[in-house]
Design brief:
The structure is a single chain. The protein contains 10 helices and 12 strands. By secondary structure, it is α/β, with parallel strands linked by helices. A 5-stranded mixed β-sheet has the order 5-4-1-6-11, with helices on both faces. The longest helix has 16 residues.
Amino acid sequence: MTNKMTHTKILALIPARMGSSRFPGKPMEKILGKPMIGHVYEQVIKSSLLHMSAVATCDKIIFDYIESLGGVAVMTSNMHERASDRCAEALLKLEELHNIKYDIVVMIQGDEPMIHPDMIGEAVFPMLNDKNIKVVNLLGEVEDDDEFRSKNTIKVVCDLKMNAMYFSREAIPTNASNSIGKQICVIPFKRDFLLDYTNLTPTPLEEAESIDMLRVLEHGFKVHMKPTKHSSHAVDTKEDLKLVEKLMKK
């Protein structure tokens, strides 16, 4: 494992935009006195596995804030509907700028302020151990019935080999099943597969559910789900923001 890590160039990209339909401006909303995107970035860069970390954004306010922290930010098009497409653009810009080719790109959504640095390793290791895995997605526990029924929580049902069968904002198929969890948006892609992804035609279920990974499934590829030991709660609404602030105080 150590030898594989030494020779594997891993880039972390944090897509963030101010124009969220459910919570406009949320990357710059403050949690414990700091903009949410700052919490995410500062946690991500603690991972010792990464060669570089950067925020991919179409908003200058986010770009300027990350640079004010001494961080790396990349301006991207404002036309992207999916975070994965934004990351693909940022990947190519960074590779050209630094004259490097990465092996793995880890997408960490900018609304995951509770991310623990070790979650990056949890998500990447299955990919290092199995050359056939093109994309991994962390899987968390659905903590209560409210979360199970919330359309802001993306539920995932898995097969016996821990590959995703379906992602949905609806309550699927039953909250009594051990095969169901929630999507945590720490998602490593093989570099070339991320570029392949962005060339795939957007799909009906992807657009209906507004979930990136459904484009992968609908085109016949697999998404390997990796359970995480860490608890996380994404911020999709102002109510989520208040809850996460309480959780982070602890």
